[in-house]
Each structure stands twice: as C-alpha cells, then as structure tokens.
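Kindly draft a sequence, keeping tokens residue-aligned:
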Amino acid sequence: MRKNIGNTLWAIPEGYIPSGSTGPAPAMTSHETACILNAGDEDALVQFTIFFSDRDPVGPYRVTVPARRTKHVRFNDLKDPAPIPLDTDYACIIESNVPVVVQHTRLDSRQAENALLSTMAYPV
C-alpha cells in the first residue's frame, strides 16, 4: 500500500546564492537546491515563489516531479519568469498539487574549503 507523504506547502525562509565559486563547474558552482521527493502515484506540479526584502515577489517558477521520483532543482537554474539574483537574500514558498517532501541544500564554494548546508524546509 502506497501512502502519500509530505505536505503541499513548504517554506524556505533563508536563501542566498553566492556569485563566487572555486572548483570545476557545474559541480562546484555555488548554488542552492530544493530536493523534492514525490513518493505518491501522481505527478507533482510544483510552483516556487521567491520573496525579497526590498522588492515584490517573483514567480511562479514551475517544475514537474514525476510520480515516485525525486528532483533536485537548483535555484541558479530557475530563469522564467526571471533569474534569481546572486548575492541577494531571498526566501521561497513551494506549493504542490500533491504532498511532497522538500529538503534545502546550499553549496558555498567561494573558498577552497567548501561549505555545504542541508536542512528540511518548513512544512506549512
């Protein structure tokens, strides 16, 4: 028996994509990622809305996570409706038509001693 796990609404209150990187691209390019697990039997239609401290929100950015699959979405790769600016604080709301699980990861490779951060997004 399959069970849908997760939530349909998630928040990542802290986001920042450094403009600098050390190491070979694209693997070592500084980035933020939303790791989305769709354990259910229906494709997840996922929308990202990006919030800033000094301007109106931007979005929705749309991605599909197929049923019983995972997708890692780099915020650096979100271009439509507008690229997410580098060196800028932001936050994100993630909405899905079916329950999903979201984990947030950052690779900061501005220095040769890389920093990797990973945490669960907040289920709303």
User: Anything to note?
Assistant: The chain has no helices and eight strands. The radius of gyration is 15 Å.
